Amino acid sequence: MGLPSKTGRTYASVGVDRGAVAVGLRALLEEARYRAPSTSGRPLPLPGHFAGLLRIGTLTVALTTDTIGTKGLLAQELDRWEEVGEDVVAINVNDLAAVGARPAALVDTISMPKSDPAILAALGRGIRQGLEKAECSLVGGETALVPELVNGVDLGATALGFFPPGRRPITGRSIRVGDSILGIPSSGVHANGLTLARRIAAGSPGGYAGTRRGGSRPLGEELLTPTRCYVRAVEAIAANPAVHGLAHISGGGVRNLTRLKAGLSFQLDAWPRPSGIFRFLSREGKVASQEMYQTFNMGIGFVVVCQPSHSTEVSARLAKAGYPDVLRVGRVGPGHGVQLPELGLSYEGYG
Amino acid sequence: MGLPSKTGRTYASVGVDRGAVAVGLRALLEEARYRAPSTSGRPLPLPGHFAGLLRIGTLTVALTTDTIGTKGLLAQELDRWEEVGEDVVAINVNDLAAVGARPAALVDTISMPKSDPAILAALGRGIRQGLEKAECSLVGGETALVPELVNGVDLGATALGFFPPGRRPITGRSIRVGDSILGIPSSGVHANGLTLARRIAAGSPGGYAGTRRGGSRPLGEELLTPTRCYVRAVEAIAANPAVHGLAHISGGGVRNLTRLKAGLSFQLDAWPRPSGIFRFLSREGKVASQEMYQTFNMGIGFVVVCQPSHSTEVSARLAKAGYPDVLRVGRVGPGHGVQLPELGLSYEGYG
Question: What ipTM describes this predicted complex?
Fold first, then answer.
């Protein structure tokens, strides 16, 4: 890789400090603590996970919310909106998939300076692409024109999923030492780390219009590639009790694995060497690999932890469902945190 | 009132054009159209209503999303955040209440320039106030630090509600000519029209720190009053089949009534004369009454349409549930749209 391991540009240096977010979020969550009566449904405790779970009568539902963050600024810089429309669906349904829930409905939220039918139509086309891939319905949304508040399009969504009869939430609780870790490749940077990636790409010799070594498209366009949808992967394997945990490798990179279970370690001894856009970003931006792996997905967008005796079967099912590129990326060991032994990288928790 | 009826400052003149939003939104919705297979749940068609409804197995759920818009800028100007935390819950659960759904879960979305634990803690306190009033659980959220994208706190949420056994969605479909229209007072401007209200208040002789004639608090503080929560009102009457329709008087003011049913008119012949903050805004801002009633709630935050023979009983139930100030504000007539005959005001649709 040729990446410096712990020096170099960090995400905090461009204004995004994961530690500061965590501190602020703890403050909010401590103050917001409230236990509703059971007549309003029963939340299932799953702190820090990819989705919130709630039991209403005999049905368990999952709720998740996320925004595309500064990927919207890239869309604006290139005046291309379809891709981020697809993103805002994908990032949310992938979080539902990470608890084993089937997406049912989505609502979008758009804050923008002024109404622009061309932008909104393109976002709509992208949203439809996302919905089709996830087999999910758009049931509402909010578009706020707030010129004083936003400098571009702040695009978010919330997705509702559910557990069909016979399927249980996949939380990671059943993960054991010795489990296999499979990874499904990403389609690029997805919708995380864009504040850093944009800065590096825009400042590179050719800017967004330039093409990186080995690239086939202008850099800006490459960064805009929509997030791959992993819903059909999970639909194919969620009923299999040998599947112990699922992770969407979103903001926080490989740290996302620590959201599944404490008290054991995720040994990523076969994570593929970053290529393409990740190699470019680390070299061009002089970003330390410690930072790269906690900011970007580094080539793997979704992870499946399963019983090792079932990994061949699970991989075969994933291949049949449209994910033939699934590969073994590691195993679960004793200890704690996430390690990439070949690179000497180690991460403790998610925050 | 002394308001000019159709001249004067409009909401469009400060950058918020409801017509332009509608055009853009239609563009998005046309392109996003997609019909998911029924294995992903069945959306119930309720276009333009306060919440999206979806049937999953035997359970019907409702989903709604909204942001506090530029009320966040007022919070920032006054450096007071608890109120808008409560707002972001109230505006969403009130939309659930408007279809007769019981709130179950909420997720919040915060886009802000940098992490600020004091702001987030205050928001958390406000969110808890809102959750308590609605008996609703916070099950997740997203906090994005996006300094390039936002100039303040862009605060939104999505709420999930459901219909307890035996309760049906209240959509307005059963509204008939002759029905009574009851109104429950608001707590002030709630979270709509703030772009205009802020401009008027900030530009008034005493600014935010000044007190309007008859007011007891500084104007800024008065505008910041959290949205009243109508959830317990609806819980008290939702099982009564004489209740035909419910409306949350949010953005769009009295136009919100047209979301309930077409082919009849809402005759607001007893809407209370605007007082307090609304009187101040119209006079100080020289805002036409036509504009006032489609921008602000004008003193009534929630409307209940019911069979006239049951209006006394419904009012008594509302009083017992904590809304003793409910009053009759009009009746359903033939024709279409919303009329305020005393003021000579007429509105066609919502958009």
Answer: 0.92
